[in-house]
Here is the input.
Amino acid sequence: MHELSIAVSLIEAAVEAAANEAGTVRTVHLRLGALSGVIAEALESAYQLARVGTPLERAELMIQPVPVVVRCRGCRTERELPMLDALWCPACGAAEEVVQGRELEIAALELET
Amino acid sequence: MVTTRIVEVRRQVLKQNDTVARELRQAFAEAGVTVISLVSSPGAGKTRFLEETLTRLRPSHAVAALVGDLATDHDAQRLSRSGAPVRQIVTGTVCHLEAAMIRDALRGWDWQELDFLFIENVGNLVCPASFDLGESQRAVLFSVTEGEDKPLKYPTIFNTADVAIITKIDLVGAAEFDRLAARQAVHRVRPGMTILEISAKTGEGMEQWLEYLVDHHERRAEGKT
Ligand SMILES: [Zn+2]
Here is the structure.
């Protein structure tokens, strides 16, 4: 269950980001890539546990899923994939690399004053 | 009156880990230490493979290992049979190693004198994927008994690894393992990745693995990677 340590890091990062802002954090918006290695449901329940006793005790977590995007090393064409498989460009056959889908980042904070 | 506003932040959740990992990577590079991390499922033969690696490298290179495990067990003890210095990191309930654990485990150690430092991660293919440890190469291992489609089940870790190692290749016949299908599966999720087939038991493939390591180490020393 690495989601718990991720939830703890998430709260620390959000508290740090909110330190310069006036108001109370109501919602944390998280961008979560399909390749982040983190499962959204597991992170949500870990977050419920981890927020207790922190400044985010009453803040909600909103997870925005980020799909996988790969780019061809040959012709540079990009395409979205449901999962990581067959990373060969359909157009030219060259190998593809991941350009999106590893995100594990706080996108925004919703604050109440 | 209550007002709400949205502030954009764009902050990496694992920023702290990434920062420590970056510092470690820089320190390793300056000291000329090549750091290789090993990830696998339990039972892939990772400890046996590492023991064999340490034993074979030790006559020519200064080597050491850090072993991550949920609880104290015999892995570290077993690895020290190779004669190389070994330290264990007990992770408790945490199913992966983090960069700060590596930094702390290295305190009071003359690791700067090393050529190679191996980091054996906790045995699973999910949790370690998110945590950069400052390593220069990440090796992902799976054994012929785990099936050819292992990479397709864990594409994230295979895609972030630098080299795939198929272990227990001596059992290829008994396990009815299709080598070609396995190589294709690796390349489906990580086109062009180096694949080595080894048996720590018979020694098959160990020479190629050592060549791979030494070549990587020397190229790093020359500043080519
Ligand atoms: Zn292409």
